[in-house]
# Entry
Amino acid sequence: MANPDDDWDYPPGVGPHEGCELDLMLGGEKPLALFSGAADTEYEFPDAQFAPHVRSGRIVQREYRYPLVIRGATRPMRELYYALPGEEWRVFAMRTLYARTKGKGRTDADTHEIGRLLGYSKAEVQAYLDHCDTVEQKFR
# Structure
């Protein structure tokens, strides 16, 4: 059986920010970065990479930890946000959107809002959504 992840290359017109967040933020091109995952895994959150810029005030950090229950087991989760000074409102906006859509799924409008908050253009978000549709159709 085919694996959808095997076809997951970013389409033309979408510049993924993964791995480039700090450089984009320091260049003023990205107002918000979000890193999230289980806090008890090997996933490496970029605390050390961002720390000097947080200490200097060039970037603002917000962190949220919460328990997530999956099949009766509780996992500690972590959301780590970095925002440019003056853009901290985006953290609240993102958390509000996530809370509103939790367990309901996200609409294209929600995805556009997430993209906007993270610094993607409308065209980049639409190219991403179009690509998602194309990949999804392969597995219907």
About this structure: The two ends are 12 Å apart (CA to CA).
